[in-house]
Amino acid sequence: GQSLEQPSEVTAVEGAIVQINCTYQTSGFYGLSWYQQHDGGAPTFLSYNGLDGLEETGRFSSFLSRSDSYGYLLLQELQMKDSASYFCAVRGGHSGAGSYQLTFGKGTKLSVIP
Amino acid sequence: EAGVVQSPRYKIIEKKQPVAFWCNPISGHNTLYWYLQNLGQGPELLIRYENEEAVDDSQLPKDRFSAERLKGVDSTLKIQPAELGDSAVYLCASSLTPAGGRNEQFFGPGTRLTVL
C-alpha cells in the first residue's frame, strides 16, 4: 500500500517563502502531485513531478527525489489567499488500472499571517 | 468550460435512511472518481470509472454503498442505509483517459453529508 507523511500545520508571514515536505512509502510509484484546497472548496491541481528535480509554475515550485522517497512544495512571495490546505498525492500502485490511482496525504494547513 | 458539478451541496439525514449523490464530470473526461474526505484528512478513493466500467472499487464498502455511471457520463453514489460514521464530504473528480503523466484530476465542490 501507500502512506504519506506531511506536517499537519505551517504558519508563515505574508511575502515570505514556505516549504511543505512530503515523504512517502509506496509499492509502486509513478509520480508525486500537489493539490490545494481552501476551506469548504474543491481540491485543485498545483503541480506534478514524475522525474527527479524541480518543477516551477509561477510562485509555486515542486521538487522530487525518487531515491529518497521525498518531495516538497515551495511557495514564494506568500499572499493571504495562499492560506489553505496542501495535499501531496502519490500516483502509484501497480501498472495498468492502478497506475492512475492517487493516494493523498492528510494535508498541511498553511496559515499566512500579515 | 464548466467544471465538475455535484448535487446536492449539503445533505442532512437520519441514520438508516438512504441518500444519493449526483455528479456530472467535465465534458469529454472518460475517467470519473468518487472520493470520501473526512475532516482534517485527505481524499480517499471509493471508486474509479473508465467510461461506464468500474475499474477500481476495492475501497467501496459494498454492503451499503453502490455507484453507477450509466452511459459513461453522469454518476450516482448511493448509501443505504446510512450510518453515523458516513458523515463526511463526498467528492467527485474527473480526468482525461489516458491522463498522461500528470493525471490531473478536476474536483467538484463536494456534497457535505451529515448523518444524525
Outline the structure in words:
The complex is a heterodimer of chains A (114) and B (116). Chain A is mainly β. Chain A is built from no helices and eleven strands. In chain A, strands 2, 4, 5, 9, 10 and 11 form a six-stranded mixed sheet that branches. Chain A has a five-stranded antiparallel sheet with strand order 1-3-8-7-6, with no helix packed on it. Chain B has 116 residues and is mainly beta. Helix content of chain B is 0%, strand content 47%. Chain B contains no helices and eleven strands. In chain B, strands 2, 4, 5, 6, 9, 10 and 11 form a seven-stranded mixed sheet that branches. In chain B, strands 1-3-8-7 form a four-stranded antiparallel sheet, with no helix packed on it. The radius of gyration of chain B is 14 Å and the shape is globular. The model of chain B has no long low-confidence stretch (mean pLDDT 92). Chains A and B meet through strand 4, strand 5, strand 9 and strand 10 of A and strand 5, strand 9 and strand 10 of B.
Bulk shape of chain B: globular
What is the arithmetic mean of pLDDT of chain A? 92
Radius of gyration of chain B from the CA trace?
Answer: 14 Å
**Order of H and E elements of chain B:** EEEEEEEEEEE
Helix content of chain B: under 10%
- Which class do the helix and strand fractions of chain A yield? mainly beta
Q: Write down the overall geometry of chain A.
A: globular
Question: What does the largest sheet of chain B look like?
Answer: 7 strands, mixed
Helix content bin of chain A = under 10%
Classify the oligomer.
heterodimer
Give the strand tally of chain A: 11
Strand content of chain B: over 45%
**What's the average pLDDT of chain B?**
92
The helix/strand series of chain A, from N terminus to C terminus, equals: EEEEEEEEEEE
Number of strands of chain B: 11
Number of helices of chain B: 0
